[in-house]
Write the structure tokens for this entry.
Amino acid sequence: MSPESTGQNEHYIRAYRRGFRAWRGNRPFWAGMFTMAGGLPIAYFPYANMHLGNVTLAMSTTAGAGSLIIGVLLVTLGLTMWFHSIVRVFAGVASILLALISIPVANIGGFVIGFVLALIGGALSISWVPGETRSDEEPFGEHGSRRAPAKDLPYEERSEDESHAATSAVPQQQGAGYDLAADGDAGRNRAG
């Protein structure tokens, strides 16, 4: 095996990275990431203590359980966007609503950090659409855009090569001279 050949000598980190890139491309990855990142400060800040020198500032509120629930739900919705992307619109709407609810419940939405991140994640989830599978056989039109396949174009818009290929792909009919005697098997297969 020569050192120029690829595939066998590929480093396993590069293979994992390529696999992760393919996995990430088939789902609303950044929407889930922003939604989970928004849920963490919303759930964390009501239970955190801030130390300013010798002074400890407790940010706990009476709605600590509500903010914990909102944060956990946002993280769950982010994971749902990743692993069950078919419900991405529901998850996006739910994360936007939870982000809005976190403003009065969870320390102004996790000091606005969690609110903004969850809002962006929800919007990205709603707007994400799965990509179309791309085949290399489709022709390109002007400016690099994809053209419709020749079979979908009206006959007038097809180029001469495409119209000739379309007519030559039609099977020719057999004439009246078809000989039934050539099928002398009477329906049996030839192997036995």
